[in-house]
Amino acid sequence: MSKILLPLLISALFQTNLCLAAPLTAFDEAARLGGAAADAVAAPAPAPSRAGSDLTAGYLRLLSSPGQGLGEKETAELRGCRVLLVRGFMTGGYVEPISIFGRKVWIGRYFHDQMKALKELGVDYAMADVDSVMLPAHNAAKIAAEIRKSDKPVILITHSDGGMYALQALVENPDLASGVRGFISLQTPFGGSPVADYVKGHRLLSAAMSGLLGHFGGTIDALDSLTPDKRSAFQAANREAINSVVAGVRIISFASWKADRHGKPDTLLELPRNLMLTRGMENDGLVPAESAILPGSDYVKVEGADHIVTVMAEDTLVKFDRRAFTRALLSLIITGGK
Question: For the residues of 155-198, what is the DSSP string, one character each?
Fold first, then answer.
């Protein structure tokens, strides 16, 4: 299943659920946006040991500059590193073409433009071998192994749950920090996603998701790991270790939200996006913007990008230059935001 088809399914299931039985207050109850889970998203754990810097202005300047600030010196440093791309939840079929009537067809092309940008720069890269329907601990071990086997410093570019896997790998293996040149997390639900609570809390949605996960060899526990309660518990239990990771690794959290263009569709994730907006949460359709910022890390926070368009060639409703985006964030990693 592609990253394009999954949001459509989620939106269809949301629509069916709302039309059949669930009033808007059901979202409040399932996601508990006005209660503990909302608090978990806003403040997932005790305060970090340092305050992260807002790099948004610098990022926007780089986007409009030639080469996004990657001159000969910066590019040479990048070429001395290996970029590890880490995908997120239920992405097992997103990086290869599927067969339709005997023909190979690409749907979505996950991280495709990131790979193009890296090829243009002459930078070594690899797609991490993760099982995206498994729990974060399972994939954290895989990420740790990938970092250890690299003969170059690693730059992690992660999307969605992929950032959870990478963070857990660094938390559980403090020695890895010396081999990580930078960590770019794209829209990772560090504080959890209320959408996971909503899906888990409704019979129709939960049964459909359980069936999908089971088809790909996973269980509903993978979805449960995305809830605000579970992410809050992880951060609270590992605050000291997370503080050490933030202090020892150059981390940039990329967070985004998509405003509602009233009167016309503007994202494939319109229904979950709008439901969170009704509760005052700026979000990308799956993850609240504040949840996507790892406490203590530097961050970029912008409007206009949904959860899909940053990593997939889905420009029908949202226009986004993924190559310039990737180069700008890599420039911030190499230059330290200066």
Answer: EEEEETHHHHHHHHHHHH-GGGGGGEEEEEEES--TT--HHHHH
- Do residues 332 and 55 touch, judged by C-beta distance below 8 A? yes
Predicted confidence (pLDDT) per residue in 205-219, tens digit: 777 777 777 666 767
| Maximum pairwise Cα distance, the chain | 59
Query: Does residue 53 contact residue 337 with C-beta atoms inside 8 Å?
Result: yes
How many helices and strands, by DSSP H and E, does the chain display? 15, 8
Query: What pTM was estimated for this model as a whole?
Result: 0.85
Q: Look up residue 124 and give its two tokens.
A: 């070594």
User: Domain of 320?
Assistant: 5-335
C-alpha separations of 20 from 14, 256, 269 in Å: 10, 31, 20
Contact between residue 265 and residue 68 where contact means Cβ atoms under 8 Å apart: no
Give the β-pairing of 98-100 and 103-105: antiparallel
The number of folded domains in the chain is 1
d(CA 215, CA 220): 11
- pLDDT of the residue at 113: 93
* CA 307/CA 186 separation, integer angstroms: 9
Q: Distances from the Cα of 38 to the Cαs of 31, 193, 231, 290, in angstroms?
A: 8, 10, 12, 11
Distant-in-sequence, close-in-space partners of 59: CB < 8 Å, separation ≥ 6: 300, 302, 328, 329, 332
